[in-house]
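Dear support,

I submitted the protein below through the web form. The confirmation email said the job was done, but the results page showed an empty box. After a refresh the structure appeared. I'm attaching both so you can tell me whether what I see now is the final result or a partial one.
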Amino acid sequence: MKLLLLTLTVLLLLSQLTPGGTQRCWNLHGKYRHRCSKKERVYVYCINSKMCCVKPRYQPKGRWWPF
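What the results page shows now:
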């Protein structure tokens, strides 16, 4: 009985620790989430009220065009 309770507790904690879902965005480099992790930044907002969280190395670099 204790083993069953321990197993259920571990499974519940693991399900809570994995943020976001499996939906991908931004050329399959980002993930739709309600909150981005520490190593990610928001790149675009989506229709489903979630953010597309992308690691900075995959985000396009902004170029300043001199006029």
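Response: this is the final, complete result; the empty box was a page-load delay. The chain is about 25% helix and 20% strand.
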